Amino acid sequence: MLKVEGLNVFYGGIHALADVCVEVEEGEIVTIIGANGAGKSTLLRTISGLVRSRSGSIKFRDRDITAAPSHEIVAMGIAHAPEGRRIFGNLTVRHNLRLGAFLRTRASEIERDMERVFRLFPRLKERQGQLAGTLSGGEQQMLCMGRALMAAPKLLLLDEPSMGLAPVLVQEIYREIRRIREDVTILLVEQNAYQALRVADRGYVLETGRIVMQGPCAQLRDDPVVKKAYRGG
Amino acid sequence: MNEFVQQVLNGLAIGSVYALVAVGYTLVFGVLRFINFAHGSVLTFAAYVSLFSVLVFKVPFPFAFGASLVLSGLFSIMIERQAYRPLRARGAPNLNLLITSIGVSLLVENAIIVFYSADFFVFPRVLPSGTVSLLGLATAPPIDLLLTAVAVFLMSALYMFVNFSKMGVAIQALAHDRDAAALMGININLTIAYTFFIAGVMASSAGVLIGIKFNVNPYLGGLFGVKSFAAAVVGGIGSIPGSYFGGYLIGLLETMGAGYVSSNYKDAIAFVLLVLILLFKPSGLLGRGIQEKV
C-alpha cells in the first residue's frame, strides 16, 4: 500500500533520513520505533509532503507521491495525526473535526463519521462545543486522532500518540488504536517501544536517520538489542 | 454639538479608509506572518485603474469601480506569486519577505512616475456635487457617505466569508497552524492567493474612493498605507475586528485633533498612537498576541 524507497532527507546540513526503505501492506499496523531525534517524525512529515526529500521515492497504492503537495496526499487517502497534536485550539472540538473532513463534500457521510469518532472517543462528544485549546492532553490526543479519521483515510499516520500522557491514558489511547485498525491501515511512530511493539504487526528500528533493524514485532520484542535500547532492559 | 457630530462624520469616512486597508495587513500577516508593505501599492494601482477607465475608456463609474476592485485583487495575487512565493518556496525567513515587500512598493510607485507621470490628477466628477444634509445635524459630501457604506458592506461581507464559508475557515486554520492546515487537505498556496485577493479588494475599494475624495497620485498608497499599518498594529495585528477598530480610532482621533487642536498635527496622530501602543500594549488593543510554538 505504501512503499518508501531509498529516502534521503536533509535539514540544512543534517542528514535526517538516510536511504530509508519502509513498506506498509493494506490492513497492517507497522511501527517505527527509535529514540528522540532519530528521524521518525521527519519520515512521516516527508510522506505527508510537509518536508521535501532530496532523493528516493514514496509510492502510495502504486502512485508516486514523492513530490505531491500535502492537500493532494490527503485527498489520496493518507491522514496524519502529527506530533504535538497540532489541534486548532481557538476552534471548538466540533469545528476541528469538521476541518478534518475538509476535502469531503457529502454532509451525511461527514455526519456519520463524526458519530463514529464520537463512539470511539465519547469524551469528545461531551466536549464538542468546547474550545479545543481547553482540552486536557489526553483529550487533545483523541481529538487529533479523531480529526485525522474524519478524512476517511485508507492509511493513518500516527506520530507519538502516547507522548506526554499518563500511563492510564496511554493504555486508553492504545485500546482505541486497536479498534481503529479494524478499518484503517496504520503507520505508527513511537518512542514508547513497549506499547508500539505490542500493538503492531511489523516494526522498524530507526537510529539517527537509518533503519538498523526490521522484522515482525514478536521477533523485535525479544531482540536483546531492542530490549536494552528501547525498552529499558 | 453640531460641530462635534460633523467631526465624527468626517472621522468615520476617513476611518473607513484606514479600516479597509488595515484589514489587508492583518489578513496577510495571519497567513504569512509578515507585514506586506506592498499593500499600499495595490491601493494606488486601484486608483489609477479606475481613473483610466473613466477618463480614457469612458467606462461608467460603477463598472470602473467594480473592474478596478477585481483587477487590483488580481494585482495583489500577482505580487504574491512573483515576489513572495519564490522566497517562500526556498524557505526564506519572514524578514526577507518584508524587505521584498518594501522593494515592491517602491517599484510600483516609481513605475507609475517613470512610465506615466508624477502629476496629481483630479478625478472626473462621478458623484453628485454639493453636500447631503443628515437630519439637519451635519452635512457630508456624497463621497463620504459612499465610503462609509462601502466599508460597512465589505466588512460585513468579510465577516460572513471568514466565519461561515469553507474558504474562510481555511484562512483561519492556516493562520493558526500552517502545517496542521495542510494536513487537513487545505491547499496552502491557493488559500494564500485568495487571501491576497481579498486583502487587495478591500484596499482597492478604499483606493478608488480616496482618489475621488482627494486626488490620484503615485504616493497615494504610501501615506494611507503606512497610516493603515499603524491602525492594524494599534488594533492588534492578526485580529480582523482589531484592524477595523484601529482604523476608526485613528480616523476619529485624527479628525478630532485637526478640528479641535491643530490640523498641523493631523498626520502625526496615527504615529504617536502607534508608538504609544507599541510601548504599552504591543499586542494591540484587541490583539491576543502571537504565541510562539516550540
Radius of gyration of chain A: 17 Å
CATH topology of chain A, anyone?
Rossmann fold
- Number of E strands of chain A: 10
Tell me the structural class of chain B: mainly alpha
Task: Find the count of extended strands of chain B (DSSP E, 2+ residues).
Answer: 2
- Distance between the amino and carboxyl termini of chain A: 34 Å
Order of helices and strands of chain A: EEEHEEHEHHHHEHEHEEHH
CATH class wording of chain A:
Alpha Beta
What is the general shape of chain A?
globular
Q: What is the share of helical residues of chain A?
A: 25-40%
Mean pLDDT of chain A: 94
Major sheet: arrangement of strands of chain A: 6-7-8-3-9-10
Provide the β-strand percentage band of chain B.
under 5%
The multimeric state of the shown protein is heterodimer
**Strand arrangement in the largest pleated sheet of chain B:** 1-2
Helix segment tally of chain B: 11
Radius of gyration of chain B from the CA trace? 19 Å
Task: Indicate the topology.
The complex is a heterodimer of chains A (233) and B (294).
Chain A lengths: L1 E10 L2 E11 L4 E5 L6 H8 L7 E6 L2 E2 L5 H7 L1 E4 L11 H8 L6 H14 L1 H5 L10 H13 L5 E5 L7 H14 L4 E6 L2 H7 L2 E6 L2 E7 H6 L1 H7 L3
Parallel strand pairs in A: 3-8, 3-9, 6-7, 7-8
Antiparallel strand pairs in A: 1-2, 1-4, 4-5, 9-10
Chain B lengths: L1 H31 L6 H17 L5 H29 L4 H22 L16 E3 L3 E3 L1 H23 L1 H11 L1 H6 L4 H26 L6 H16 L4 H22 L4 H15 L14
Antiparallel strand pairs in B: 1-2
